[in-house]
Amino acid sequence: MRRFGQSALLIAFFGFLATGAANAADARQTKTAGGYRVELHVMAAEPFFSKQDVASKNVKEGMEIEGGAMPVAPNAASHPNHHLVVHIFDKDSGKVVADAAVTMNFAPLDSAGKSGAPVDVPVVVMQAIGKGPASTHYGNNVSMPAGHYNVAVTVNGQSATFDVTASDAPAGSMGGMNMGGMKM
Known about the structure:
Elements: H1 2-25, E1 27-33, E2 36-43, E3 48-49, H2 51-56, E4 63-68, E5 82-90, E6 102-109, E7 119-121, E8 124-128, E9 137-142, E10 147-155, E11 158-166, E12 177-179, E13 182-183
Parallel strand pairs: 3-4
Antiparallel strand pairs: 1-2, 2-5, 4-8, 5-9, 6-7, 6-10, 8-9, 10-11, 11-12, 12-13
């Protein structure tokens, strides 16, 4: 009986660690751009589904495409390893902005802080499946090798730049981001 209790405790402990690790790996950084609060999220590549697929295939997890650019699938030839997205909020009311014009790019930085050529992100407008308009966000899956980056975001003509250090996380790993000096 005692051995069973210890095993159950160990399973619960490691389950807690796994859940905490998955949550901790999601990176988030917030900036203000004009009248908007812009939250940058970097996590493992996510699957995308059309509204028709969500309904007909009873899909419960992933991103529902609302518009914008063509999404990059997690298994695409470009081997995307991160889901690079922004959530946009009205700075004063805190309400989600679901109809913003958003552009994004990321540029590698060398050890001296000099920027390389920016990589444009084809911006998909999406919602988390089952979460509705309050979960509207903008971005796509990207291939972001390990390194230091500036991520530039423009929302309705207002700009914000984020400082990101990325690990070379494989697709689906939820992994390894460092945002502005905080290891995630």
